[in-house]
């Protein structure tokens, strides 16, 4: 086996380990978040829940996204010099470390400006809620705490030490849940917003502590390094020009991307009542569980794999990626396998989710949310939003790992056009057709579809310009038996849907014998479908995985 094959095998194994670790993290964090939402949805009113989960979370994500996203993605593509002595003592290269200090430096003014702008634009009805202003300030402070730990996150990410992140975020999520529930139980609904805010602050503090324990000497060196960086001492500490330009390009692009990604929250916070925002928030939290637990870890681990596999020679020079056939074949195979997984998961969601969603909602949603738009919003997730999320995440991960500054400029121009088209879709569906919050889900899906289309086009063009050993895209589609099985099983589970079924009652009291019989049929069909998927593609998957491992 060649050294390149060995490195690709090692990298693919690490990427698989990263994906599994992140899935465990998301399973833990989303499980805790799910339990937290179940408790808070019953303790807090829809208005309070909507304010915290839509508006406050939007404020926090805006601060974090604008301050760190571009730097984080750019430094993932950095390749350290193997002969650099700074690597021998466990330190990052100075050029990488200095750029990694930008997120906390940018975060303070971004947090201050975002919080003040949010308070200025907030209507009086929302401002009048108890502890509202204090909660906004705490959310901004919590975002800064998270950003202080960002250089340590970047170091762990570049070292592929994702176990540190799992410990940090896992423990932070648990502490956030405990603090939020404890305060709202102790202080009542009057202190509900404060409970959410202090829970978020606990999350930021815990993240910082765990990263600091992993790198105890790092924080002590930051004051002097920040001072030297600010005063431009380029003899010892400097910004590597190409990395800095890439970071700035990705940061400017991330602003438009953030508007598109969080466009539904921006829209719902402006056009909906606080109660409707609560319904949208709880539907979004439940509906995105699959995306957070499965899609996000795959997206992040694939971004690591693509970035590291292609972070060599010509790719570092901003030209075409390495022409080495083994590398191109391995990258193409990994992307095809991930897309194949996305197609399978989409088929399973479309086949089984709609017939069983009403039964599931009886158990999940508090009774007062069954009378809101939450059930209608959740019904669109498995068939419309989640599939577009899956493909967009995978393809944009590849785009972020391979695009040059010129490509990012073209992509940014496309995103401007996509934002205009998405805004038009929101007006058409929400205002003109009066679809309200369900219209936002359709508009969000349209936005993701446009972005996935552009990223897919880029992947097609990129592999067309780089040798991929004659690989085709047919490998990303399941064979005919899988499609036929999903079609037949989908017809069976819909034919056995309980007569007059739907949202009759809530909780276990709303579950009858017909529902139990219906679930049994679905479980049998699901096992049959999974068996057909596995047996019909076992040999193909073994061949593909052997290519990734370099055998």
Automatic annotation (TrEMBL):
Cellular compartments annotated: Endoplasmic reticulum membrane
Pfam families, sorted: Rft-1
Membrane topology reported for the UniProt record: Multi-pass membrane protein
GO biological process, one term: glycolipid translocation
Transmembrane segments: 101-121, 136-154, 166-186, 192-215, 334-357, 377-400, 412-430, 442-460, 480-497, 517-535
Pathway: Protein modification; protein glycosylation
Domain of life (superkingdom): Eukaryota
GO cellular component: endoplasmic reticulum membrane
Keywords: Endoplasmic reticulum, Membrane, Transmembrane, Transmembrane helix, Transport
Protein role: Intramembrane glycolipid transporter that operates in the biosynthetic pathway of dolichol-linked oligosaccharides, the glycan precursors employed in protein asparagine (N)-glycosylation. The sequential addition of sugars to dolichol pyrophosphate produces dolichol-linked oligosaccharides containing fourteen sugars, including two GlcNAcs, nine mannoses and three glucoses. Once assembled, the oligosaccharide is transferred from the lipid to nascent proteins by oligosaccharyltransferases.
Family statement drawn from the similarity comment of this UniProt entry: Belongs to the RFT1 family.
Protein known as: Man(5)GlcNAc(2)-PP-dolichol translocation protein RFT1
Record organism: Tulasnella calospora MUT 4182
């Amino acid at each position: 086996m060649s050294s390149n094959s060995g490195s690709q095998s090692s990298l693919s194994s690490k990427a698989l380990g990263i994906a599994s670790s992140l899935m465990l993290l998301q399973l833990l964090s989303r499980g805790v978040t799910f339990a937290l939402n179940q408790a808070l949805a019953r303790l807090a009113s829809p208005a309070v829940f909507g304010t915290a989960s839509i508006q406050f979370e939007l404020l926090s994500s805006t601060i974090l996204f604008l301050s760190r996203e571009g730097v984080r993605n750019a430094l993932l593509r950095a390749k350290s010099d193997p002969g650099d002595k700074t690597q021998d003592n466990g330190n990052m290269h100075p050029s990488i470390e200095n750029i990694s200090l930008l997120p906390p430096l940018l975060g303070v003014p971004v947090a201050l400006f975002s919080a003040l702008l949010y308070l200025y634009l907030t209507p009086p009805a929302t401002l009048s809620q108890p502890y509202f202003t204090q909660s906004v300030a705490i959310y901004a402070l919590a975002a800064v705490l998270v950003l202080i730990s960002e250089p340590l996150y970047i170091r762990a990410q570049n070292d592929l030490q994702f176990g540190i992140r799992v410990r940090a975020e896992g423990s932070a999520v648990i502490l956030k849940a405990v603090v939020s529930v404890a305060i709202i139980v102790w202080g009542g609904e009057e202190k509900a917003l404060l409970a959410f805010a202090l829970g978020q602050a606990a999350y930021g503090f815990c993240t910082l502590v765990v990263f600091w324990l992993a790198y105890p000497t790092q924080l002590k060196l930051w004051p002097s390094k920040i001072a030297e960086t600010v005063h431009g001492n380029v003899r010892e500490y400097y910004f590597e020009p190409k990395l800095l330009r890439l970071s700035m390009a990705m940061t400017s692009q991330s602003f438009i991307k953030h508007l598109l990604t969080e466009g539904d929250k921006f829209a719902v916070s402006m056009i909906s009542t606080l109660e409707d925002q609560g319904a949208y928030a709880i539907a979004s939290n439940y509906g995105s569980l699959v995306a957070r637990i499965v899609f996000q870890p795959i997206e992040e681990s694939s971004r690591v794999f693509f970035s590291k596999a292609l972070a060599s020679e010509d790719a570092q020079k901003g030209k075409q990626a390495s022409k080495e056939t083994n590398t191109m074949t391995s990258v193409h195979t990994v992307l095809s396998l991930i897309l194949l997984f996305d197609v399978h998961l989409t088929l399973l969601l479309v086949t089984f989710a709609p017939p069983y969603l009403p039964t599931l909602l009886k158990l999940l949603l508090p009774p007062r949310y069954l009378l809101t738009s939450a059930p209608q919003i959740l019904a669109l997730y498995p068939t419309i939003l989640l599939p577009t999320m899956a493909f967009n995440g995978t393809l944009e991960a590849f785009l972020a790992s391979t695009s040059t500054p010129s490509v990012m400029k073209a992509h940014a121009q496309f995103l401007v056009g996509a934002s205009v088209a998405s805004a038009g879709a929101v007006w058409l569906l929400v205002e003109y057709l009066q679809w309200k919050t369900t219209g936002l889900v359709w508009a969000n899906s349209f936005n993701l579809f446009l972005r996935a289309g552009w990223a897919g086009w880029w992947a097609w063009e990129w592999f067309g310009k780089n040798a991929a050993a004659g690989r085709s895209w047919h490998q990303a589609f399941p064979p005919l038996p899988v499609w036929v099985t999903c079609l037949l099983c989908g017809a069976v589970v819909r034919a056995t849907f309980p007569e007059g079924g739907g949202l009759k009652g809530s909780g276990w009291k709303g579950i009858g014998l017909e529902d139990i019989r219906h679930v049994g049929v679905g479980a049998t069909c699901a096992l049959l479908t999974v068996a057909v998927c596995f047996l019909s593609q076992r040999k193909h998957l073994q061949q593909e995985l052997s290519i990734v491992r370099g055998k």
